[in-house]
Amino acid sequence: MKKGVLLVNLGSPDTPNPKDVKRYLDEFLMDERVIDLPYVLRAILVKGIVLNTRPKKSAEAYSKIWWEEGSPLIVLSERLQEKIDQFTSVPIALAMRYGSMSIENGLKELDEQGVDEVLLIPLYPQFAMATTETIVVLAEELRKSMFPHMSFTQMPPFYNHPDYIRVLSESIKESLEGKDYEHLLFSYHGVPKRHIRKSDITNGHCKMNGICCETPSPAHQFCYSHQCKEVTRLVGEYLEMEDGTYSTTFQSRLGFDPWLTPYTDRTIERMGLGGTKKLAIATPAFVSDCLETLEEIAMEGEEIFHEVGGKEFHVIPCLNTREDWVKVLSRWIDEWALATPVAVEA
Ligand SMILES: C=CC1=C(C)c2cc3[nH]c(cc4nc(cc5[nH]c(cc1n2)c(C)c5CCC(=O)O)C(CCC(=O)O)=C4C)c(C)c3C=C
Ligand SMILES: [Fe+2]
Ligand SMILES: [Fe+2]
């Protein structure tokens, strides 16, 4: 048996042109775990409505943040892969759930190197149906149909792993060193509330009533809302922050369904109107900077804050290729790679 790793992130369009953005959004939003409507309704909504309007707007947003080398999300993920490769002894491949760098190609790359035992690492700290689950489901479908000789181990969401919390907390501390701020927002990508109910294995715990996420339950293993709030709580604890000086919000909602609240944009506006002048913001649903952090937060968010009287808006970068983050991921990989299989008696 030969071990190898597949890192998987979300993906980006090939270019920031409306045609490529449209193709990418088509694949992304037609995923039944992202827009979880029956096929016909999903197709009417996505192909009939969203794809006629959104690509132009999204393409403009992508153009503002695009780098010479390509999409920041892809470039940063590639740099992460290269750095991890320097620290670990097993082959490391990189794939995206949507777009050209497919999971199929990533698995082929590992297969060509003789790898038949794969550690699948979805690059998301928290579990969500629209991120972790869709990656695992597609990878398993591909394994069955194209790589039946391979076996997979899935890295569980690492939202509460002490190594991750330490690295995230240190990154926030360093980024805010010498800066003055009144409040730190932890802004996570939002999901429709319905997604949380669908992932509730207890069939009733997740009521999103402000109490359920703090009440112990097996549902939390798959509860995005709980896992986001835990990251905020654990970082607050690590950095010894005072109650009331930090809070959790959710960004990037789409459509008319109720999504997780409070919404980031409205919170920024409310805080500015309420007299907050100096705001800091971290985005721990993403390990790599991307459209949602570089445009929606660092550009749109800052504009909202300034419009309502805010003065200083400090955006904390994602972990990207921080050395301590690279070392933590490499150590997790090595621990898996070096683990001796437990002998099973016949
Ligand atoms: C129903 C729609 C969406 C759900 C649910 C959703 C969940 C979700 N997404 C991320 C991470 C990222 N999303 C990004 C972009 C993006 N997301 C949606 C829609 C949903 N996301 C859209 C339509 C887009 C495209 C841009 C736009 O038109 O606004 C990105 C950025 C990708 C990039 O190329 O930089 C990331 C990353 C998470 C973590 C998540 C659920 C937890
Ligand atoms: Fe998204
Ligand atoms: Fe909850």
From TrEMBL:
Transmembrane segments: none annotated. Pfam families: Ferrochelatase. GO terms for cellular component: cytoplasm. Pathway: Porphyrin-containing compound metabolism; protoheme biosynthesis; protoheme from protoporphyrin-IX: step 1/1. One of its GO terms (molecular function) is metal ion binding. Gene3D superfamilies: 3.40.50.1400. CDD domains: Ferrochelatase_C (cd00419), Ferrochelatase_N (cd03411). It is found in: Cytoplasm. It is an enzyme of class 4 (lyase). Keywords: Cytoplasm, Heme biosynthesis, Iron, Lyase, Metal-binding, Porphyrin biosynthesis. One of its GO terms (biological process) is heme biosynthetic process. InterPro entries: Ferrochelatase, Ferrochelatase_C, Ferrochelatase_N. Its EC number is 4.98.1.1. Its main location: cytoplasm. Fe(2+) binds at residues 189, 292. It catalyses: Fe-coproporphyrin III + 2 H(+) = coproporphyrin III + Fe(2+); heme b + 2 H(+) = protoporphyrin IX + Fe(2+). It comes from the Bacteria. Belongs to the ferrochelatase family. Catalyzes the ferrous insertion into protoporphyrin IX. This is Ferrochelatase. It comes from Nonlabens ponticola. The lineage of its organism: Bacteria, Pseudomonadati, Bacteroidota, Flavobacteriia, Flavobacteriales. The gene is hemH.
